[in-house]
Specification:
Elements lengths: L1 E2 L6 E6 L2 E7 L13 H11 L19 H11 L7 E2 H8 L3 H9 L12 E2 L12 H13 L2
Parallel strand pairs: 4-5
Antiparallel strand pairs: 1-2, 2-3
This protein binds a DNA duplex (13 and 13 nucleotides) through α2, α3, α4 and β5.
Length: about 150
DNA sequence: GCAGTATTGTATA
DNA sequence: TATACAATACTGC
């Protein structure tokens, strides 16, 4: 399922257990692996880009196939409140991991928006990376901070 | 296995 | 201010 947004189309893929992946269309093609959560996620994403603050917390994520460390990092990242930012080190300390590991896990995060990786920044306030899309990360942060 | 990363803190010039 | 090093986890070759 393809979700049109202000930053371009997002590819949504869900399973009976929850969301499998949600990210900007980098994949030339994908399987129409839709499910019962597709509409719900689509609506939440639409509201997000309307400036509302939908809680993605009630949307289940399908972590199957991911390592326990990744799941831990994603779960912790999901708890970051709207408009706030956390440092990789802070997350790492909370999880008992190391900052480097947090970055590695977030780098491979397939849950764009649902796992607000854009709210995770350097310890000194700089943005850090975003899988080659730092501009997108900056846009999201400005969007959440300024409301538009 | 090995190397490259979405990091951080300390040390050195 | 800028560069170098060590330690961790995930991805791709």
């Amino acid at each position: 399922m393809l979700l049109p947004t202000l930053i371009g189309p997002l590819w949504l893929e869900v399973s009976p257990r929850g969301v499998r992946r949600l990210e900007p269309v980098l994949l030339p093609r994908g399987k129409e692996a839709e499910g019962p959560w597709a509409d719900r996620v689509a609506e939440a994403v639409a509201r997000y880009f309307r400036g509302e603050r939908p809680g993605f917390g009630d949307i289940p994520l399908d972590y199957s196939g991911l390592s326990p460390k990744q799941v831990a990092v994603y779960e912790a990242t999901r708890r970051v409140p709207y408009g706030r930012t956390v440092s990789y080190g802070s997350l790492a300390e909370d999880l008992g991991l190391f900052p480097r590991a947090v970055g590695a896990a977030l780098r491979a995060c397939p849950f764009f928006l649902l796992v607000p990786a854009h709210r995770v920044v350097h310890a000194d306030g700089r943005l850090g990376g975003f899988a080659g899309r730092e501009g997108l990360k900056a846009w999201l942060l400005r969007f959440e901070a300024g409301g538009a």
